[in-house]
Amino acid sequence: MMRLWFMGSGAFAARCLAHMSASLPFERVITGEPTRAGRGLKETVSRVEETAVALGLPLERTGLLSRNEALMGALGASPPDAIFVVDFAQMIREPFLDAPRWGCFNIHPSLLPRWRGAAPIQRALMNGDAETGVTVFRLVRKMDAGPVLRQASLPLEPSATASELYEKLSLRGSQIAVEGVQCLQNSMDNMTQFLKEQDESIATYAPKVEKAEGEVSWLWDARRAHDTVRALDASFGAYAAVRGARLKLWRTLPEPGAGGEAGRVLRFSEGFPVVAFGSGALRLEEVQAEGKRRTGGGEWARGMRLKEGDFL
Predict the structure, then answer these.
(1) pLDDT of residue 7 exceeding 70
(2) Domain residues of the chain, as ranges?
(3) 188 — pLDDT class (breaks 50, 70, 90)
């Protein structure tokens, strides 16, 4: 019988674990220690821990892997066939990297070697890519550079958001991960036939998105602003300046053929304000004023008493 471990912490990893555990036997699920934050330093467990507990999977918490002697002892005494490492926030080094029979594998939400790094979904959207995808690859010492086991592409619709892509790519990535493991199980240890090296000459990188990158200017092209909004909807959100205050932009929609002086309310479409940018215009469908809850763009506009022709 196949023997697999899973290492992960974040929401993307939790989604993958939930999907994969329906088809694969994980004998260990390893996640980070709880964090403490907020009033009273309340303890918060990882999303992977929540999922593992809900599914009844064997769970272990760990600090630094290099200091976890019990886990390293188990690895040495009875190494698994493979370890899936997803959204784990620790660099995987020896002895974990090469001890498993087939090695360690990652599910990465991009078409590697494009968008290696911490924020592939956000960078693909901010760049206006027409296509994205998900890659299952074998871990090596260099970040996101290992040989590819399986890969699947997905067209990027102009309305697609990061939130939607996390769901779609975790599901598709889990499906091809299961397919890949099943191939390895039947490979008679000749797994090189299923692995394809990445082309280093076309690699691009997706560094973590800083909060300052969420600032949107009314002088921008409307498509650039829209791409920023949809890229950040699953994190801290994009924002624009409105009469000296920040307005979070959670959901926008391009308005074909509309345009005018940047920052002007051109009209109302289905109750939502349509605002001109440096080029083009966006309909503000969901926003959040400073210190307020998220709300529909129309409700916010009524509260601001905005009318056609007003400047933001």
Answers:
(1) yes
(2) 4-202, 212-304
(3) low
Determine whether 208 is exposed, middle or buried from the number of CB atoms within 10 Å of its CB (0-12, 13-18, 19+). exposed
Q: Which residues of 63-100 are buried (b: 16+ CB within 10 A; e: fewer)?
A: eebeebeebeebbeeebbbbbbbbbbebebeeebbeeb
Which conformational region is residue 309 in: left (phi greater than 0), alpha (psi within -120 to 50 degrees), or beta? Answer: left
Return the pLDDT at 266: 97
Q: If one looks up domain 212-304 in CATH, what number appears?
A: 3.10.25.10
Predicted pLDDT at 41: 75
Residue 290 phi/psi, 5° resolution?
Answer: -55, 130
* Residue 171 backbone dihedrals phi, psi, to 5 degrees: -65, -50
| Mean per-residue pLDDT, 295-299 | 98
CATH of domain 4-202: 3.40.50.170
Q: Are strands 42-44 and 35-37 parallel, antiparallel or unpaired?
A: antiparallel
Give the model's pLDDT for residue 39: 73
Decide: residue 60, CB within 10 A, 0-12 exposed, 13-18 middle, 19+ buried: middle
Contact (CB, 8 A) for 216 and 236: no
On the 0-12 / 13-18 / 19+ scale of CB atoms within 10 A, 110 is: buried
For 175, phi then psi, to 5°, come to: -65, -45
Q: Which two tokens stand for residue 103?
A: 């090695």
Cα angle, residue 54 at apex, residues 51 and 58 outer, rounded to 5°: 80
Could you check whether the bond before residue 273 is cis, i.e. omega within 30 degrees of 0? no
